[in-house]
Amino acid sequence: MAGGSRLAVVSGGGTGVGKQIAHTLAGQGDRVVIIGRRRELLAQARAEINEATGTDHVADTLVGRAGTPADVAAAIRYITSPEAGYLTGQIIGLNGGAVLGR
């Protein structure tokens, strides 16, 4: 499959092999989400890779941005609405996909 049409989620993307894989994929034009334990390393890796590849294809959340109070309000509106009547005992992770797979 040619680059540019995929979305990759790279665990440990803030350092080492994970960071290099993210760099390679972004350089091919793929969208890349990096996840890891240390937020500051992820932010640094994201900036370095995007600058080196001349792209903005690397994000540290699936949605590529920080959450807002409006995001939380929308979730609360939904879980308190009649449409969520069948939803019981769930944990709703409002994290933009930042903890995907953990």
Key traits:
three-stranded parallel β-sheet; alpha/beta
Number of strands: 3
- What is the approximate shape? elongated
In round numbers, the mean pLDDT is 79
Rg (C-alpha, Å)? 16 Å
State the end-to-end distance: 27 Å
* Biggest beta-sheet profile: 3 strands, parallel
Give the SSE order as H and E letters. Answer: EHEHEH
Q: Fraction of residues in helices?
A: 25-40%
> What is the strand arrangement across the widest sheet?
1-2-3
Counting DSSP H or I runs of 4 or more residues, the number of helices is 3
Category from helices, strands and their pairing: alpha/beta
Q: Beta-sheet strand percentage?
A: 5-15%
Low-confidence stretches: none
Structure write-up:
Helix 1 (16-27) runs parallel beside helix 2 (39-53). The protein has a 3-stranded parallel β-sheet with strand order 1-2-3, covered by helices on one side. The protein has 102 residues and is an alpha/beta fold. Helices cover 37% and strands 12% of the residues.
